[in-house]
Design goal:
364 residues; alpha/beta; Rossmann fold; 2 domains; seven-stranded parallel beta sheet; six-stranded parallel beta sheet; 13 helices; globular; Glycosyltransferase_grp1; transferase; Glyco_trans_4-like_N
């Protein structure tokens, strides 16, 4: 199959440090190449891939000092993708809705994975006008605000099985990995750790937009003797950081579309303690790969009961549900459906919801 993957240009594919969407695009691209498909990756010039790379900037636009209008680069990329459309059996976009005007007025086969939150009030007016564009969600919960668009299915993220290794030994600290932002609630993670008397290590990126939030609300919390702030880490550092943790704290306060750090933790055998928001009930098997909690008190109980979670079982569930091979297989099914019946991609409108987990009971 001739496949084009169109990545965002804000980071390299894969990103050098933090960056979920570009990392998933990279994993998917490499797996498709490994399976013998002819893949072209539209991405930044510093991306690393075994596919054919077509670049539109020397590096990720977030770190390019001379980039003042990142949309200009993206629109140039979309123009070139459209011009080359007859070279591909399917074009897979990961750039949100930016390409809709191009794709809606052309006849090429395409699908878009939406990687972000969809509960923003401005989105319905846009998606109502592009209701035939074929879309993929990364969790069933993510799609709830937009029930009437053309969902082709839900495809959970997957990572290479050999990227992380099982550490069957219980860790020595609680871990927080992600961004310092109001919705990620690192303050909750710190509160939980202090109340149970456990050391917490925080590996987190601080975006410019969140610098004031960090200074005002978080910086003073890092002075506690149980708190160690590491900062942003790369993929190599992430492995030992997660593998040596007793549990990953995921105390989110927003409708998380997926939360890749949860499956990365599971890949190391590390249980997850996550607040019941967004995709969490779809990713975590309560009582098996961690605990789903509703508040701080529930989280404290979960930390105290974390030894009841089998790290071997966490790894087993990861291998069963969240490998890159499983993700690629599901995408290939969607590609084939669109190629064999292109009209499906224009007026599908079926639910496409993935149901592969039993109902859960929250802790507390």
């Amino acid at each position: 199959m001739r496949i084009a993957q169109v990545a965002p240009l804000y980071e390299a594919t894969p990103p050098k440090k933090y960056g979920g969407t570009e990392r998933i695009v990279s994993y998917l691209t490499e797996e498709l190449v490994n399976q013998g498909h002819n893949v072209t990756l539209f991405a930044t010039g510093d991306s690393e891939t075994s596919a054919e790379l077509v670049s539109f900037s020397k590096q990720g636009l977030r770190s390019e000092k001379n980039c003042f209008d990142p949309l200009a680069r993206h629109y140039a990329m979309m123009h070139d993708v459209a011009k080359r459309a007859n070279e591909f059996d399917i074009i897979h976009f990961h750039i949100d809705y930016l390409h809709f005007p191009f794709s809606a007025s052309n006849s090429y086969n395409h699908v878009t994975t939406l990687h972000g939150r969809l509960d923003l009030p401005d989105l319905p007016i846009l998606y109502d006008r592009y209701s035939d564009v074929p879309l993929v969600s990364i969790s069933n919960n993510q799609r709830k605000p937009l029930p009437n668009v053309n969902w082709m299915g839900t495809v959970y993220h997957g990572i290479p099985a050999n990227l992380h290794q099982l550490n069957s030994q219980e860790g020595t600290y609680l871990a927080f990995l992600g961004r310092i932002s109001p919705e990620k609630r690192v303050d909750r993670a710190i509160e939980i750790a202090i109340k149970v008397g456990a050391k917490i290590k925080i590996a987190a990126k601080i975006d410019k937009v969140d610098e004031e939030y960090f200074k005002t609300h978080i910086a003073r919390l890092l002075d506690h003797p149980l708190v160690e702030f590491i900062g942003e880490i790369d993929e190599i550092e992430k492995k030992s950081f997660l593998a040596n943790a007793t549990a990953l704290l995921f105390p989110i306060d927003w409708p998380e579309p997926f939360g890749m750090v949860m499956i990365e933790a599971m890949a190391n055998g590390t249980p997850v303690i996550a607040f019941n928001r967004g995709s969490v009930p779809e990713i975590i098997d309560n009582g098996l790969t961690g605990y789903i909690v509703n508040d701080i008190q529930d989280a404290i109980k979960a930390v105290n009961n974390i030894s009841m979670i089998s790290r071997t079982e966490c790894r087993r569930v990861f291998e069963q549900r969240f490998t890159v091979e499983r993700m690629a297989k599901r995408y290939l099914e969607i590609y084939s459906k669109l190629i064999e019946n292109p009209i499906t991609g224009r007026n599908n409108h079926h639910n496409g919801v993935t149901h592969n987990k039993p109902s859960i009971k929250m802790i507390g």
